[in-house]
Predict the structure.
Amino acid sequence: MHKVRFWLILAVFAAVAGCEVPDSRPALWVRIPEGVPIEAVAETLAAHEVVKSAGEFERFARMGRKHLGIQPGLYPLRRGMPVGEVLVTLRRGTPEVRAVRIRERATLAEVALHLERAMGVPAESTIAAASDPQLRERAGAAPETVEGYLFPTLYRLRTAADAHEIVRQMVDTFDVRWRPEWSARLQDLGLTRHELVTLASIIEGEMPLPAEAPFVSSVYHNRLERGMRLQADPTVIYALGERRRLFYDDLEIESEYNTYLIDGLPPGPINQPSTASIIAALYPAPSDYLYFVARSDGRHLFSRSYREHLATIRQIRRPRSTGTSAPD
């Protein structure tokens, strides 16, 4: 039994993902290493609820020594599959897969270009798949695309996968990674999940240091509660459609995503937020901050009033002394 657990813990893992299966539920990618004993395979499948009983699967697999035909590889499996279907899948072998990492803060357009380079999937196909009405409904997304719901993580994608399969896999992963307690927290905040994801994407766009993310969140929560405009630069960058330095004229761009001109949140997320940004949006730090400004070293300085904010900006922009005296 200790040998089985050794294989189970050290040699077998499962990652949440979606795949091309009739069942609409998300699947599990389960790796079967070479030489793993049938007991460990059965234990793993049962632990992840792919089969109901490890013993039942093991007995079925040993009939006619069919377990000897199980091939190592990475398999997409569903919870509650019939043992016969699981065994056929493991004996058939795994499709070729490719590891592709989707980064936090990437926009849908950037994800599409990345998939085109990494997988050969045309970028316009990914954009079209992200606009699929059924996927948008499953994500609870805005009317246009599933922007914000392409969960940023490392994926193992079938090399033959089309854009719709890949996008569905990412949306399924987001849905599975969403924690039940977060939904309860939404009621306390008076926000929908879509509004929360939108806010998290704005926090992500500010690129705060981990310790500062709850305070950036508190600024936006405080502004929303007071009816102040968010005035978030990342939303303007998203409206412009390119990452570059902003100028004052850019703040006047007419767009429903320009939070310098609109009240409240934009209609949807502006990137794929990380789990850390989602948590920060759900649990802002207790503060009365209303402003912040980024320093050149990436840190942010927070202010409670506009006067304090202007003083902070002047302090940051004040030229350093060019004297030759040694620092204190």
Residues 1-24, 321-328 have pLDDT under 50 and may be disordered.
